[in-house]
Design a protein that fits this description.
This protein has 142 residues and is an alpha/beta fold. It has one domain: 3-Layer(aba) Sandwich (Rossmann fold), CATH 3.40.50. Helices cover 42% and strands 17% of the residues. The chain is built from five helices and five strands; from the N terminus they run βαβαβαβαβα. It has a five-stranded parallel beta sheet with strand order 2-1-3-4-5, with helices on one face. α1 links the parallel β1 and β2. It is globular. InterPro entries: CheY-like_superfamily, Sig_transdc_resp-reg_receiver, TCS_response_regulator. This is Two-component system response regulator. Keywords: Phosphoprotein.
Length: 142
């Protein structure tokens, strides 16, 4: 179990962030959560001394202002101290070039956000169960 990890949610869409929070509460996810509205905030959180060695999972939207998710992914996966943190792309894009590029840059998972509320909930529940209960993360992933 990875109960102690902090989850970093990087998404500028307030409705999607609200839905993620709601599903997490519904699932009983007790992990600490940090939010970033853009890529610059995401990188700042990942490099923050207060969060060092705590962030163990990143849910990353691709289309954000200031620094998009692609740039965040590239920066994290090219950083020797951060690259082991699992990054799940959770975005509206279903473009094959985005999928291919994200996996080429080291994304651990690519999920296109479902359009319906019910499908979104089911997808997030499955995602969270996998990453917080079923998967085994490396010690000191970050």
């Amino acid at each position: 179990m990875n109960k102690a990890i902090t989850i970093l949610i990087c998404d500028d869409d307030e409705d999607d962030v609200y839905l993620l929070k709601s599903v997490m509460e519904e699932c009983g996810i007790k992990n600490p959560i940090v939010y970033a509205k853009n890529g610059l905030e995401a990188i700042a959180n990942l490099n923050s001394p207060a969060l060092q060695n705590r962030i163990g999972l990143v849910l990353l939207d691709l289309n954000m202002p200031k620094m998009d998710g692609r740039e965040v992914l590239k920066a994290v996966k090219s950083d020797g101290l951060l690259r082991r943190i699992p990054i799940v792309i959770l975005t509206t894009s279903s473009a094959s070039e985005d999928i291919d590029n994200c996996y080429s840059m080291g994304a651990n998972c690519f999920i296109t956000k479902p359009a319906s509320y019910e499908n979104f909930n089911d997808t997030v529940k499955t995602l969270l169960k996998f990453w917080t209960q079923l998967s085994r993360l490396p010690v000191g992933a970050n």
